[in-house]
Amino acid sequence: MQTLCIKDWAVWIPADIDLAEWAENNPALADDGSTPKVAAVPPAMRRRLDRLGKISLSVASDLVERNGYMPSVFCSRHGEIQTTIQMLKDLIWNNDISPTRFSLSVHNAISGIFTIANKSELPVTSITAGRQDLTSCFYEAYGQLKEAKSDNVLCVIYDEPIPDEYQKYCPVPRYPYAVGLVLSLDQGIKCSFSHSEKLSSDCIEKIGKEVMALEFIKAIILQKESVEFVTDNSCGKQVWRVTIENY
Fold first, then answer.
1. 2-188 CATH
2. All structural domains of the chain with their residue ranges
């Protein structure tokens, strides 16, 4: 079992709704099409960003403004999937592909713009981890904190729905989102995380239906004592449990 602390957090969802109501009632949100302004990113760079990039950088910028610069970990299951799929279609239809659009489709593009916009020379890592986005960020941040590279690590987890024709393979997330966490070893809300391969019938029903990072933030908002997630990947089915203390 490993332990980390949540020093600060932020979340973006595409709806004008009270976060406590969202966490408590889990409403079926409809994407309202809104996009954050991301004033911290220079206009020339901001114009190059697609919606998901602006969403993720708005969360990152808010946390940096409150906590200062620190090493960062950016995590997304699919990255700029809408852009990637559209470019593949353009190739099939023999259409030209914009070099700028291509450069922003790679998995570390958003984190790269983040460091350039902030003129930061601190380490930044981009990862993809299937459904295990939250725990993968925890492990990456835990390793960096244990190596004493910094007192804090910023984690940004973001994704958007995949194109309609592929929804049957991956129905979540149902709307674009970004979750930001400032992690430390000893300051803030204490979180201990562990995993098991023993699944209850209730856990099995959750497979593929939840976004780990969003469920975790809901637990923080509601000040729950623990939260469980279920993943199913090449390592098999696993239950992840996070115990939360020191609100």
1. 3.40.47.10
2. 2-188
Identify the burial level of 123 via C-beta atoms within 10 angstroms of its C-beta, where 0-12 means exposed, 13-18 middle and 19 or more buried. Answer: middle
CA distance 175 to 170: 12
CA angle 182, 188, 190 (to 5 degrees): 100
For the chain, how many residues are written? 247
Q: What is the pLDDT along the chain (247 residues), one digit of tens a residue?
A: 789 999 999 999 998 889 999 999 887 787 888 999 898 899 888 888 899 999 999 999 999 999 999 999 999 999 888 888 888 888 899 998 888 778 778 889 999 999 999 999 999 999 998 888 898 999 999 999 998 778 999 999 999 999 888 888 888 898 999 999 999 999 999 999 887 766 555 555 555 567 899 999 999 999 999 888 877 665 667 778 889 998 7
Return the closest-CA partner of residue 191 out of 237, 223, 159.
Answer: 223
Tokens of 10: 């932020």
